[in-house]
Amino acid sequence: MHIRAEHIGKRFNKEWIFRDLNYQFESGKSYAILGSNGSGKSTLLQVISGYARSSEGELHVQVKGKKLSVEQLFRHVSLATPYLGIYEDYYLPEMLEFHFNLKPLKKDINIKQLPELLQLGHALNRPIKQFSSGMKQRVRLGLAILSDTPFLFLDEPTSNLDATGKAWYADLIQQHTQDRMVMVCSNHQEEEIFFCNQRLEIADYKPPIKSK
């Protein structure tokens, strides 16, 4: 399984966020997309995951030997980002049931185990809108990491997590990312990308600024 980026570029108005990215992302490998705040790494993640269109270039996707269009890619992707909304009027069991009716749950896990696996078993009687920011981030990460999909995309995954939450994230990653292609956007936070064996700097794909 792989996603191959061929001369991918994205611009807003006349400004290129990144350009001429040629890279093959493969299953069984983990990729860190690195850059400062506002550098465009989240935009790159959205393009490679099929959630946003590139301004130029093409994505070629293959899953289990079958070529897929970019429009079909989302079915095989799990995504967790700070800007990804969750249904905050739901209670946690409702949110879990809703999500895993759309995405398959990893086969070695029972949905009844999930509240404790997310370390949120104490919060079953509260709507998600009453959760702290860290608890909401656990929900986002749990939904993505525990979905049985070949591609996993995470944007600044330890945002709003305390030390206990970061240790929980590290444990979940180590247990549930085998044989998947994982991509993590990070502002060089080693606790987010400690497992990534491939690292790309978004600055390497920014065209030079033309002098006037």
Feature tags:
single chain; 212 residues; alpha/beta; Rossmann fold; 9 strands
Q: What does this molecule look like?
A:
- This protein has a single domain (2-205), classed as P-loop containing nucleotide triphosphate hydrolases (Rossmann fold), CATH 3.40.50.300.
- 27% of the residues lie in helices and 27% in strands.
- It contains seven helices and nine strands.
- It has helices spanning 41-48, 70-73, 92-102, 114-117, 133-145, 163-176, 190-193; strands at 2-12, 15-26, 30-34, 56-63, 66-68, 77-80, 151-155, 181-186, 198-201.
- The longest helix is centred in the C-terminal third of the chain and has 14 residues, at 163-176.
- The chain starts with a strand and ends in an 11-residue tail after the last strand.
